[in-house]
Amino acid sequence: MRKILVCLFAVLVLTARGGEPQPMFLYYFNPDHMQVVYWTEYQEPQRTADNAEYFDQWYSAWALQNSVKTHADGYTKMVIGGGRLIDIKYKDELLKNPDGEDMYPGELHSRPSIPSPGLRFALVDRKQAPRREYDYGELFVILHKDYLNTHRMVKTEYTSGEKPMPASVIRQMEQKYGMKAARSMQVGKIAGRYIQGFIQFAGEYKNAPVDANHDYKKALALEVLIDGSKVYTIEKLGYYDDGYCTWNADDGGEYCPTAICAAFEGPDGLDLCYEHGAPESRTVGMYHLRNGQFTEQNYAVYHAMVDEQTPLWKKNIATLQKLYDEENPECEGKFKLTKYRWIDIDDDGIEELWMRDKDDVHGALFCQYDGTFHLICSESDKQQFYFLQQRSGMGYVRHTNTTDESHYCITVFSSKKSFFSPDFAMVNDGGHIEAWQGDRILSNVQATNMLDKLPPKWDVYIYWHDMEE
After folding, report:
1. Where do runs of H (alpha helix) occur along 309-402?
2. Cα–Cα distance list, 466 to 61, 100, 340, 469 (Å)
């Protein structure tokens, strides 16, 4: 579902010492799907009377994005678990989807089959591919070679459990803001000395800066960095409404922790690459500690797409119809596949495609492997299939082709990692039964036992998507 499209606010365009490109964030699914996702327009913005109010922020976002594009060849390292650096290389720029249409920037899709516009990278050694902790993509920090010449990566550690910020710091901030802290958390430790976390206050932040363009009551949280007796903070304004505070869509009233993905010390001070993950948005950027000043450089706010449906690209529709016609020559030209539903039969993260004609009788089931669609089986007035429950990473489809009541064929297809093959077949020709399991011929008793041992039927909720919509 797509609840709130998070607006893309831009950034201060700062570069590291000497003008070298800064660390950037790469959205990673696997070695074949890793890219810096664009967050704003592709072309240089032009100031007009209509956009003058927000043009500077808009232009700053574009300038940072364009800087990454200009220096893409120089991003040669990626930070993975344990603070290790692995080699990466720039591949190309992707702007159009498989149907040749421009893609919308600023969206992190939950499925690798749905591309985003941006800069694509590859691993130099695929054996170094990082292990992802989640089913969807993750953001990793990538580094330009010039930045690495002047900066040293320092250790970052996550704090286990929900440990509150030091009581003395909480009291200090309560006195400063005249508000009561409702919640706090130590999120991590940096370079063995800095404590990073947040404090969330209760009630309305009545002394919030006046913003004529956003006339609403404010809530307050603080991003906090502690260095011994020194406490640095960045204010985070949220919404306050009738006793309820919120900073992000669906955050449940609790300020979401900010993770430090990588940290660096350089000639000018400390650089912290951060990711602020909320239910349906991902904010990335940098915190800088310079001359006793703790500041934020916001890169981008991405809309994290949740539970979205994979589109059926127009370029594939003709191919799918051709596969169906070749498998069912008696139906060629008579029935047109007009609606579809995705279903992950073997739970491997790659969905299979079920399509039907508008009559809800004729249809077909397709799978994808090696980047190509393949027809598994068809359905008609004489052919039916249904799904069997998954077992140990395997998926099953039972297909029946009936001539009449005494003549029919049953085929069970099994799948692992989206590769489907006939696992069992039985032909009943007027009472004469022949059956096979792979290359092995089965007796009638063995065939009956095989059918009895199949997983139970998997009742799938059907919601069709009309291709013409």
Report:
1. 314-327
2. 37, 21, 7, 6
